[in-house]
Amino acid sequence: MSRQVSETENDHGAADEFVPDYLLYLLAAASESASAQFHAQVRKAGLRVPEWRVLACLSDRDGTMITQLARVALAEQSRLTRIIIQMEDRDLVIRRSDPKDGRRVRVFLTEKGREVVSVLVPMARQHEASLLELLRTNEGATLKPALKSLLAALEENGKKEFP
Amino acid sequence: MSRQVSETENDHGAADEFVPDYLLYLLAAASESASAQFHAQVRKAGLRVPEWRVLACLSDRDGTMITQLARVALAEQSRLTRIIIQMEDRDLVIRRSDPKDGRRVRVFLTEKGREVVSVLVPMARQHEASLLELLRTNEGATLKPALKSLLAALEENGKKEFP
DNA sequence: CTAAAATATATGATTTTTCATATTATTTGG
DNA sequence: CCAAATAATATGAAAAATCATATATTTTAG
User: Fold this and answer.
1) Is the CB of A102 under 7 A from strand D?
2) Option in B22, B59, B151 nearest A26 (CB)
């Protein structure tokens, strides 16, 4: 005899359903859900998510060009151009065209941008640690390597199709 | 002596960088990258991504209400309302208010919607299989369980904060 | 050396998305 | 039973994202 289940009670993963076991759903949902809390902190710091990503990327490599920033920030080029302009208006970054290649625009952290990112990166690290603590140790240990493998394999795969 | 590395050559994961080893980046990037090819097929089928997600969700549970669809399709409620209206205009779904609770709008697949999803789900399954083949077997086997654990843990966590 | 192709960024116009809030319906506490 | 609280959906206005394409620069082929 099966008990009555309320409509709103979410019984994820019911036996034979497609979505709850579908890799692309799991990836997107995990990304969304895992990011939610930290992204709320990002917004409290007065940044939008792609802006935080830009700052983080620049803290790794100052002077990255727009196209590369777009890749890492997972945003379209034309969108990233506008985001960078807005960030420049708020004195978070400055743009300088590359002397070796005038097409390229290199983006650098300002002092203010550096301060902001120096607060956020430690927060991100701490949040990541708390996420990994949620997982049983063995799963936590495999998740990142598996994602990296997947990304690397997809990149290889992409190269094959456009050689 | 280290060789000269071109600017555009993406040397992911350089020793001491933050972003390439950051879980939220890996999740978002893996989700994006893994989805890209299949989502291109979805668009060729004349659907936007959230529309495909709605159809997939309805093929699991016909008559799901807007709020629940929004959760699974990872879209905001007001956006999903509009998406459903557009899908109704294209005769992919129909809406019926719940007789037991007049606030709820239940969404059902039409014959046409059922046909579309019956083509796309097998494509999705095949694409998923090809993704998992890209991973070394042991990693492929751990990825989905790890993502599910993470999602489950995050859900538990969320409940604690709003009891 | 030069014309054509490729690359990097910017921009205008349109479409999406979001945010706040209105509307309608149900539940709950007194 | 009623008033207030809660819940589900809809909607208008504003912000953001996308698409196609323009502009500027560098590379490549001949």
Assistant:
1) yes
2) B151
